[in-house]
Nucleotide-binding universal stress UspA family protein (Ectopseudomonas oleovorans), 256 residues
Amino acid sequence: MSKIIACIDGSPLAGSVCDHSAWLAHRLALPITLLHVLERSLYPTSPDTSGAIGLGSREHLLEELARLDEQRARLARADGEAPLAGALQRLHERGVATAPTTLQRHDYLADTLRELEAELGVLVIGKRGEHSGSRGIGSQLETVVRMLHKPILVCAADFIEPRRFLVAYDGSETTHQGLLRVAKSLLLSGLEGEILQVGDTTPARLAGLEAAADLLRSCGSTVTTHLVAGHPEEAIPDRVHASRADLLVMGAYSHS
């Protein structure tokens, strides 16, 4: 069964990840799994030095380092249980009916998500992780978005229940298939929104926009269309601001 997988860590956005996951669970009727990953790059396991040549007096130092690495990883696992427990409590307070499950891994985030992709319905992840500073996007977000072929909800700020949405539409088959998936899921049912395409005005583009809008109208959304000239990297943020959209829906890397 498909599920919502919410990436939880000690970052300030962990609460937003929980709240967005609860909203998705209510909209899509999917269970939630809370995932906490201890990154191998931050908590490495000690290498196997059996059979190594020339260790000599360094052997006891390597053994001590191995013990310290194991102790550090054990403490990190215990420390990781706190945000998972807090996330469970927050989801309960948000009225999530089906009890969420938790999963903790000592691995790389991308490798873990690749392994879980078959059961993934929607991934919910913060714009920045615990070790990513306070500006820009996290170091792993682009890797995850490039790798996965499933919907991803990126949480960039405190949760505001979406009332208005903006779909960035480019007329491609990938975007069309994404709209079909959104329409079938009823994710945007009952919400108001816009479909935006950036480019020159042509009859074909206008017809394509209207067909895309009809897809979302069929699931109960109130939709208008906009075709504007300019560059997508400028026009899309400008329209998000002007339309007061709470949710931006767009494709990524021609596959997601």
